[in-house]
Structure to design on (706 residues):
């Protein structure tokens, strides 16, 4: 009889790929090891083999924790006392959690009224200084960069290279979960474009280390209303229901294009309507993701229809955040039922028994 | 170079302790393997060694997934076509997710207006038939039992014995995460009293299998306004901010008392004020749990003060659900900041730079 070795967070688990020293104090909430769920209904419908990488099952409910554990670990190693980020919500929630865990002063700059309810709540609860500004994400990032460049406070946006280094662990996990095999296609939402960059780096490193059999094709999907990369122009007033990717001037623009090009993939966009359809279909697989997450699945559906994804392909869709992050969008898409008296016949009738 | 073996859900990982056959089709969202986080600030403050079992990091954001994977797996094995539960919210979210994954018709009966926003959203998104009734949880459970007893629909409340069998896996994980060692004390919120029953069963089985060195003392904490077990009477109109444990007539009442007695522990209550204080302190450890979860930590603080927990004790607090389940309670305890113009001096001033 042997005791199970449980997960110790992505830095400890993939240490040989992480830029830490043997004695580095690791700031972790034991992020990672998220589910890779076979989507039975969608696979049958689309005639592919579709898996969902459910990143909502991280401590703060999004993939951002993978990068934040490393960014905050390195900040502490460096003796920093404060961190700052601009955010559409998930980054701030993660920075707030890891910042509080490490005892750092944490500042988050967010666009007023444009972040999902759950995410705002997280940043506030974890004791960050939360500053909503009148402007969009890109404005928030501009001012954040200025402050970090000129004052003793460390930037933990994805301009911080450790964020990408941590996030690449998700690609390792996908290959490990598939038994040392890469998917044919990795589909992923694109907002600030850090995550597609990180996955591609991860797949390449794992291939080089002979832990996976090949490289996947990377398909990135922006929301139509903030599709700067696809439209090849900065979008000054991005608009989409997928608030987590509502970014008009992605920081990792060129790297994302490189990932798509090198992998013989592409970056495209999906409409809000396509996103909402995919969002609802995902929930019927037992997986509740935030709207932006559904851009990956919406993109897969679009590409299957266009015959750009072949029958039987092994496809992984990255679902970046948990549906609980954004209850308002969920409730706006469904009808809430009215309360009834606890009368047996009445209830049997509603159930259809 | 070896690929990591990632987590496959609690039934696969602890199969020798689970009532399934070799060829049972397992319905899983890869629940379990949740973080056990050392609470540095609270440990220092209370002069104990405190760990947080963060059950919010399950697919639907609560510990209920551990029991639901087994209850739904067994329902499918049995050829059942429909499941039903009454719920204060977490059970319904979990039943809805696993029910949709398995393709079962899923019915959830909830007390009107008394379940947290996120949980209602989950049940609806996953396509359940959601029936809010005019009454409290105990009324909802009464009618649910009647329906399950007389119609072809399987009850997945914790009266279903497989729920407890699945939930006991959390005790296994705690021992594994501590390196084959049991904590001195396991502190846990008590609502319907199924979880304390499940942990105690798990600790006993693991001890018998020689995977842990001893048995812990079990400390269960009800909320004062629904403290039926402590007050030794059914409470007809339970009231507490901790909606997940707002239950006036716990189903597993006797088994919970047995767990406390056998382990030389106890069941006590904490006030809503103590719960909210602990809730806020937890967030400063980087861990955002729902209010009911904080009952465990509130109880630990109370018992340290009363010298009922000795200095240096190894204590595990079970945090049953994620804070994102209940954004409204969070926002009611904190002040939301006002938006400012993106003016550098103004923002530097707010940051204190």
């Amino acid at each position: 009889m042997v005791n199970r070795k449980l997960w110790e967070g992505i830095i400890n688990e993939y240490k040989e790929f992480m830029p830490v020293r043997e004695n580095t104090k690791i700031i972790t909430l034991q992020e990672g090891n998220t589910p890779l769920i076979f989507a039975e209904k969608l696979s049958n419908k689309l005639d592919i083999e579709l898996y969902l990488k459910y990143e909502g099952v991280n401590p703060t409910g999004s993939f951002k924790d993978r990068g934040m554990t490393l960014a905050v670990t390195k900040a502490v190693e460096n003796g920093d006392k404060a961190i700052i980020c601009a955010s559409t919500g998930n980054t701030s929630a993660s920075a707030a959690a890891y910042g509080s865990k490490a005892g750092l002063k944490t500042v988050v700059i967010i666009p007023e009224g444009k972040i999902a309810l759950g995410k705002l709540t997280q940043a506030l609860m974890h004791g960050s200084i939360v500053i909503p500004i009148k402007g969009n994400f890109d404005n928030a990032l501009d001012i954040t960069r200025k402050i970090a460049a000129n004052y003793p406070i460390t930037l933990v946006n994805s301009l911080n290279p450790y964020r990408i280094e941590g996030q690449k662990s998700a690609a390792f996990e996908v290959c490990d979960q598939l038994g040392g095999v890469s998917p044919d296609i990795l589909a992923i939402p694109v907002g600030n474009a850090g995550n597609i960059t990180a996955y591609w780096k991860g797949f390449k490193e794992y291939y080089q280390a002979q832990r996976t059999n090949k490289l996947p094709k990377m398909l990135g999907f922006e929301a139509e209303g903030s599709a700067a990369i696809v439209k090849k122009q900065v979008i000054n007033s991005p608009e989409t229901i997928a608030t987590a990717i509502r970014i008009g001037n992605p920081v990792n623009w060129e790297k994302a294009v490189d990932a798509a090009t090198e992998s013989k993939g592409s970056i495209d966009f999906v409409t809000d309507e396509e996103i909402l359809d995919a969002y609802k279909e995902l929930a019927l697989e037992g997986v509740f993701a935030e709207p932006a997450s559904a851009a990956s699945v919406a993109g897969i559906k679009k590409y299957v229809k266009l015959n750009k994804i072949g029958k039987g392909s092994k496809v992984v869709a990255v679902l970046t955040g948990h549906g609980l992050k954004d209850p308002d969008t969920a409730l706006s898409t469904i009808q809430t039922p009215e309360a009834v008296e606890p009368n047996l016949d009445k209830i049997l009738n509603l159930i259809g028994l």
User: Anything to note?
Assistant: The mean pLDDT of chain B is 96. Chain B touches chain A through 95 residues (CB under 8 Å). The first helix of chain B runs from residue 10 to 13.
